[in-house]
Amino acid sequence: MLDSKCYDTLSRLQLRMSHKSSLNMSGNRRSVQKGISAEFSDFREYMPGDDLRRMDWNVYARLDKLYIRQYMEEKEAVVSVLIDTSASMDYGARSKADLARDLAAAVSFLALNNMDRLLLYDMKDMGKALSVSGGKNSLAKVLHWLEKLTFAGEADMLSAVKKMQRRGPGVTVLISDFLHPGMMEEDNAGYEKLLQYLDYCKQRPVILHTLAEEELRITLEGTLNLIDSETESKLRLTVDARSIDHYEQELKRLTERMKKGCSSGRGAYVVCDTGRDRNQLIFQDLRVIYDI
Known about the structure:
This protein is an alpha/beta fold. The protein folds into 2 domains: about 25-75, no CATH class; about 75-290, Rossmann fold (3-Layer(aba) Sandwich), CATH 3.40.50. The chain has helices at about 5-10, 55-65, 95-115, 140-145, 155-160, 180-185, 190-200, 215, 240-265, 280-285, and strands at about 15, 25-45, 65-75, 80-85, 115-120, 130, 170-175, 205-210, 220-225, 235-240, 270-275, 290. The strands form 4 sheets. A 6-stranded mixed beta sheet has the order 6-5-4-7-8-11, sandwiched between helices. Helix 3 (about 95-115) runs antiparallel to helix 4. The protein is elongated, with a radius of gyration of 23 Å. About 35% of the residues are buried.
């Protein structure tokens, strides 16, 4: 897990939103509602029952009409974090599962530190979301939940996203290797459907594409028997320079497609490498997800 110095630096940042909050709980995000915070928003004509303390007498003196000053109310936003806990995530000398926990911890701290409501989901068990609010003092509950996650079996990402609790506009963070046929195949367009659904729900998608160092930089060679960690299907493959080149081209096509889909939907896409230094990954590579 991340150290205290990392959290101290994260405390100066907040997640970027693309929609204003519509929840009724107080927080640090601008709301679509009008309230009584210190930031002025607009004037409107006085109506019986309005608070006379908000009357603008200078405007009355100029226009001979009663106007009320309106202020932008601050509300909490919802940050939903969905973690792919399928078996393929439990791979790598520095496993994708461990990186997924660290990424989720960082995003969770950002949400709680900015008084947002946090919803954590295991993609294989969407009916048991962990709902947390109340500031960064609630982080211990999040870390305990992350430590208990098990990575095994398969996960249906599109189905999981559709089972999210819908609580108004916010940010949805997906942490996965996206090694699922429905996400990787362009003909299926599962990834694009996922982004379209999030846009329909007024969610800013943040895609943290978690890949093992061994998947990004192939060092295997020779004739190998490969076994799918989720389906246990087998494939005999000869790894040579030609096959590695083909793999790298297909991986590049996939990441470029995913990045393009996210940018067109006002979201953010980041390849998260297990071999990358955690601080460099969180404070350099993930800059696109922050308001700085």
